Amino acid sequence: MPLLEGKKALIFGVANHRSIAWAIAQALAGEGARLVLTYQDRMEKYVRDLAEKIPGTEVIPCDVQDDGQLDAAFTRTGEIFSGELDSLIHCVAFAPASELENPFLETTRSGFHTALDISTYSLIAMARRAKPLMQAKGGSILALTYMASEHVMPKYNVMAVAKAGLECSVRYLAYELGEHNIRVNAISAGPLNTLAARGISWPHVVSRVSLASVNSQLISHPCVAILSRAKSGILPSSSAAISHVPSRVKSCLLMPGITSWEHESPHHPAHPRTS
Ligand SMILES: NC(=O)c1ccc[n+]([C@@H]2O[C@H](COP(=O)([O-])OP(=O)(O)OC[C@H]3O[C@@H](n4cnc5c(N)ncnc54)[C@H](O)[C@@H]3O)[C@@H](O)[C@H]2O)c1
Description:
The chain is of the alpha/beta class. The protein has seven helices and nine strands, in the order βαβαβαβααβαβαβββ.
C-alpha cells in the first residue's frame, strides 16, 4: 500500500520544474497523497501548468510576507481538505541579490529583515496556522535547510543566518507541537541548480547539479519517509531532527575533507578547516 495513501499535504515553494518542492510534490503524489500547492504571484503560470500533471491537485496564491494571504491560504486548504491536514512542507527562501554578492559585513538591516522574514519567520507563521488543521489526528511539518547554517560557506551570507534561525525554529516548534502529536523536522539538502540557488555564486561548491541530473529521489524519498512517520534505521522517527541529504550519494560537492573556511578575503587566503 502506498505510504501516504489518502494523506493531505500542503506544499509551499514550487516555482518551476527545477524546484525541490516540485520533486517532493511528485514523490508525495506517487505515494498516494492529495496535494495543495501554493504559489507566489509571478510563478502562477508555471505552478498551474505543473499542478495539472498531478490530477486533483489544487493551487492557491500565497505570499508568505502577507498575513492576510497566509490566513486565506490555510482557510482555503481547510475547505479543500475538510478541515484536516497531515503534512506541511516549507520550501520557501529568499534574500535580496545584493546581500549574497556583498561581504557579509555589509549586510543591510532591510536585507536581513527580508531574508529572515521570508525564509525563517514564515515557518512559524505556517506552523501556527497548520496546528488547528492537524489537531485531531496529528501531522508532520518539514522544512528545507542548508548546511551553511553550521559551517561558513562564503557568499551564502545572510541566508546562512536565516537557515540557522530556521533550524532553531524547527526545534522550538517541535518542542511545543510534540504534545499535539505534530512532528517538525528539516532536511538539509546538498547544492542543486534551482531558481533560488542561481542567486548565489557558491564559491565553496565544486559543481552544482540540477534535480533532473541527479536522482531527485535522494531528496524526495527522505521527505516521504519523514512525512509518512515510518520507522527507519537512518531517518528520524521523532521530531526536531535536521537530516543531511547530499545531492549526490558520494559527496555533498564540497571539496573533499573540507568542512568550513575560517575566513576568506582577497588579502587573506581562505583557511580550510579539515574534518
Ligand atoms: N537549491 C539548493 O541548493 C538548496 C540546498 C539546500 C536547501 N535549499 C532550500 O530548499 C528550499 C527550496 O528552494 P529551491 O532551491 O527549490 O528553489 P526555488 O526557487 O525553486 O524555491 C524557492 C521558493 O521560494 C518561494 N518564495 C520566495 N519568496 C516568497 C514569498 N515572499 N512568498 C512565497 N513564496 C516565496 C519562491 O516562489 C520559490 O517557489 C529553500 O528553502 C532553499 O533554501 C535549496
